[in-house]
User: What shape does this take?
Amino acid sequence: MEPLIPKHGGYRRLKSFQIAQLCYDVTVRFCDRYIDKRSRTHDQMVQAARSGVQNIAEGSAASGTSKKTELKLTSVARASLEELLLDYEDFLRQHGLPQWPKEDPRRAALVARRCTTADAVAEWVSEIRLTAPQPPGIPSTKSTSSTKSTFPEIAANAAHILITVACALLDRQIESLAAAFTNEGGFTERLYRVRSEHRSRAPTPPPAPRPALHRRSPRG
Assistant: This one.
């Protein structure tokens, strides 16, 4: 029998959630190092990254009783990451740094690395940094003794690549959710199906006995 409320809330197993969470961790580090904490851009980038993570989780948790809410919040997560993607593009453009094209082998190299933590991404950035000179004019906002040294061009492009992967995963997820909603409906349709199935399985009760008719005795 179809359950009324299906299994839901398994967002931690979603690849989209895992990559979005990685983007959030990387963005926090990037902003603390290269974006003035007093600037509005710092808060906006961090909040956009956080929104991507939180809305995936909230949508997954709500999916048991509202596929419509799950689809809506997953779309909000996708929009938040698109906003963050543009912020990294703005950073590169405003600082005169190149945005790596799609065919740049470093993009494929980072994806193939399958980093799961911000430390792993920072390690990859450091490795790539050894092969390129440090461009002038972009000082770190923290001393290199307290955090791992990052190369702004590589760090920004690395974050951009990870966000692009997360957006692609969310695009497929949204497409799948939309198809499921179209074919299966939402909670109201599920409720109707479950009730109909329950009624069809329920045994038919025996007919109630008819009351006996009492005849009046003839008057003597």
Summary: Confidence is low (pLDDT under 50) at residues 141-150. Residues 152-184 form the longest helix (33 residues).
